[in-house]
Design brief:
Strand order of the largest sheet: 7-4-9-8
Order of helices and strands: EEEEEEEHEEEHH
Mean pLDDT: 89
CATH architecture of the largest domain: Alpha-Beta Complex
Radius of gyration: 21 Å
CATH topology of the largest domain: Nucleoside Triphosphate Pyrophosphohydrolase
Number of strands: 10
Low-confidence stretches: none
Number of domains: 2
Number of helices: 3
Distance between the termini: 36 Å
Structural class: alpha+beta
CATH superfamily of the largest domain: Nucleoside Triphosphate Pyrophosphohydrolase
Strand content: 35-45%
CATH class of the largest domain: Alpha Beta
């Protein structure tokens, strides 16, 4: 007679952990660099867990990441040189938010600037922090549908190549390690369950 031992008790879900209600307390903050896109500060802080430490923080106003869908099901990616990475990268449309802009307004502007398309439908999906250890930037993922041609208006310092890819082509690019941009990986992989609801 075969005996199968009972399964071990389920581990407590990390989402059931006790929330931390305390806030960090900044004791001292010094701006050591003020740039066009970011500010760099050194801050002495007492964190919610009681840790008294000094943090280097890059402050950024936030940005949008746009997943543009063509009527035939293809996606639009853009490629441009990223000096910090020392290479050109295929990416979703993205850019920093201007003061006073809503997420939809920023997404519409960036889509026009980088691709020459406008979108009748813009659907915010989620937001995320790409590098919360050092960077305050929050990225907002937005889907763009019902695209129509518009005037392309890239920034003066941008040289952008536009590509049109099927979802399968983009997934193959990911599997072959041809896409290295983090926000693009988040955006594409987030949409996979919607494409394959049975999986």
């Amino acid at each position: 007679m075969l005996y199968w031992p009972p399964p071990p008790p389920a581990a407590k879900s990390p989402f059931e952990a006790r929330p931390v209600h305390k806030r960090a307390r900044i004791l001292k903050s010094k701006t050591i660099f003020h740039g066009r896109a970011v500010n760099l500060k050194i801050e002495r802080v007492i964190e919610p867990g009681g840790v008294d430490t000094t943090r280097e923080v890059v402050y950024h106003p936030g940005s949008v990441v746009v997943v543009p869908h063509l009527a035939d099901g293809r996606l639009i990616l853009v490629r441009q040189y990223r000096h910090a990475a020392r290479q050109s990268l295929w990416e979703l449309v993205a850019g920093g938010m201007e003061p006073g802009e809503t997420v939809r307004q920023s997404a519409r502007r960036e889509l026009r600037e980088e691709t020459g398309f406008d979108a009748r439908v813009l659907k915010p999906l989620l937001d995320f922090f790409p590098s919360p250890g050092i960077l305050s930037e929050k990225m907002h993922l937005v889907e763009a549908w019902d695209l129509t041609p518009a005037k392309k208006r890239p920034d003066a310092d941008e040289r952008i190549e536009i590509g049109f890819f099927t979802v399968d082509q983009v997934l193959e690019m990911i599997q072959r390690r041809k896409i290295h941009d983090g926000k693009t990986l988040v955006g594409i992989l987030y949409l996979l369950p919607a494409r394959n609801p049975q999986s």
